[in-house]
Write a sequence for this structure.
């Protein structure tokens, strides 16, 4: 966008998708003659917040809410660290040339929560339960085999002792 006074502003990525706790670059490039004042504002459903204002080559005034999370660059861009759900919304940049001409830009930021950790937990839990059930099935199979062997042995011993008793009874008669 170019203003009549010769200041221009380019927003190469007007729509940004980020995840919680990510560091993002809200990239712009302004050009123009003289000293310009650059101002960033964030507008969301929670309201409007002024993030930062600075003059090229001069002072930087960062809002206390963003003090530890914002880095400014001479081309007008800002870097926002550790984004959260509240950072989603519209970012308006105003570049004002020293003669009073303005140019504006907008960036839309969408922030998503990371659900991969939850899915990872469910997958690990499922794998653990599957392994546990396989071990229990093997254990039950071994118990069943052992029980069958014991039953055969006991049955064989009972059959042998009844045969002896029958033979002893026959001899006594």
């Amino acid at each position: 966008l170019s203003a009549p006074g010769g200041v221009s502003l380019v927003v190469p990525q007007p729509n940004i998708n980020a995840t919680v706790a990510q560091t993002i670059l809200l990239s712009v490039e302004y050009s123009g003659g003289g000293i310009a004042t650059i101002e960033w504002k964030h507008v969301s459903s929670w309201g409007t917040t002024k993030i930062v204002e600075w003059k090229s080559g001069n002072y930087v005034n960062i809002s206390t809410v963003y003090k530890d999370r914002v880095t400014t660059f001479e081309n007008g861009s800002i870097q926002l660290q550790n984004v959260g759900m509240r950072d989603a919304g519209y970012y308006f940049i105003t570049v004002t040339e020293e003669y009073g001409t303005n140019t504006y830009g907008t960036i839309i930021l969408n922030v998503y929560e990371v659900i991969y950790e939850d899915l990872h937990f469910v997958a690990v839990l499922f794998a653990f339960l599957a392994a546990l059930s396989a071990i229990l099935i093997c254990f039950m199979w071994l118990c069943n085999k052992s029980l069958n062997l014991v039953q055969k042995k006991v049955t064989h011993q009972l059959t042998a002792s009844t045969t002896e008793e029958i033979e002893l009874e026959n001899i006594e008669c």
Remarks:
- The chain has two domains: 8-114, 116-172.
- DSSP finds one helix and eleven strands in the chain.
- The chain has a mean pLDDT of 86.
- The first strand starts at residue 8 and ends at 10.
